[in-house]
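Hey,

Quick one before I head out. I ran the complex with FNR overnight. Inputs first:
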Amino acid sequence: MAGEPVNVNEFQELARKVLPKMYYDFFAGGAEDEYTLKENIEAFHRITIQPRILVDVSRIDMSTVILGHKTSAPIILAPSAAHQLAHPEGEVATAGGAAACNVIMGLSFMSTCTVEEVASSCNAVRFFQIYVFKRRDVTEFMVRRAESNGFRAIILTADTPRLGRREADIKNKMISFRLRNFEGLISTDVVSDKGSNLAAYAEEILDPSLCWKDIAWLKSITKLPILIKGVLNGEDAMKAIEAGVVGIIVSNHGARQLDYSPATISVLEEVVQAVQGKVPVLLDGGIRRGTDIFKALALGAKAVMIGRPVIYGLAAKGESGVKQVIEMLKNELELTMALAGCCTVDDITRSHVKTEKERFLC
Ligand code: FNR
């Protein structure tokens, strides 16, 4: 690649060049055969966009309101771990990129900068992602820290009773990173006799007994609205609504957990139909283009979350790389909307896309 990156895939190439192999593989890799990793992207390729012509598209407005927060575009930064492995400024730089672009930032429980550092450095709207640890008091303490540091929602990641088998990390003997949020709270010692250090460590700390009734516990310890991340079918979506969540995130954890789980875009409609408009549905997994965002919106998502592209931008150029990646996706979405005849995100409807099955039936 010569010159400046012109799309997210070129940012990925830059990240591959600048990062040590162990870290690049950690960020880019998926579980086992990486079937779902490929499908998350390829399933988008099988959906076509049905443009409308002769619509006045001289003004395009991508802004939207997500859980009461106005944002410049239907984009949220997905919570992902260990940004200091990508760049020394870590999540503080990522949050700076989110603030500069006026999009919502999701901060991972497993961040390398602390909740306080991110909060004090950035005025972006922030959601805090949590895992439930065996030591529930630690999770509770973190929720309270998020609350008192101005985070606006809790994202409960529900697809990680244990860590998926990420073979690149096992081969690379991926070392753990400093979980600074937890220093003084739990042991941050790395154990290494069960395969990847990370998987063994996660097994020690994550609570595999977490289940639906625990959402009541979570609601009892916080007033913040709760979103659930990791829903992949209508049945779980209905349970989540019954449990009282305010938003559902269709996600397979960027294909890092259960390999052969479906591509997120392929199950979005089932979830949207089950939810019946009661709460917003978000989607992540495989968003690499503005056209992908358009497709997700057409199939019923309120917004998308982006994971790896942000990390690639961060690795390549720090905060300005994060900003560039978000701007790239926003520019691509704006152009897609113009070419498809949609002036606002509400103009993007189900009839603007065709799935492979629908094309086959024509
Ligand atoms: C993640 N993801 C994730 N999710 C979460 O809830 N808590 C976490 O700590 C992490 N950590 C994490 C690390 C890395 C390196 C990646 C790539 C992903 C999953 C993330 O929130 C999101 O679901 C996916 O990244 C979305 O897929 P794409 O955009 O990366 O294809």
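The CA atoms of residues 127 and 152 lie 5 Å apart.

Talk tomorrow,
K.
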